[in-house]
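ok trying again, last paste got cut off:
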Amino acid sequence: MTSILASRSHSHDAPTPQYRPYRFTYCFNGTEWSVDIPALSLSEAKERVKVLGFARYEGEVSANHGRAERTERRSGAWFRKAMRSA
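nice, full thing came through this time. structure:
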């Protein structure tokens, strides 16, 4: 399993830095898996791996797109409002 993470930076004025993929391998249920982490350096890639435990689920990866579909984010206010009116 190999995945390239997508950046969601909204700065259009700054030049795009050159990220390189750094491959990390781990074992799960007796099988080795790999993931590519884009970073500017190996030390940055290691820091990115450290925070993967805080990642949030955003959808199943589509075979057609090769990346997770973007999910719509809502504040939850609609749910609280619906509960009050019930």
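cool. Residues 25 and 31 are 10 Å apart (CA to CA). The first helix runs from residue 42 to 50.
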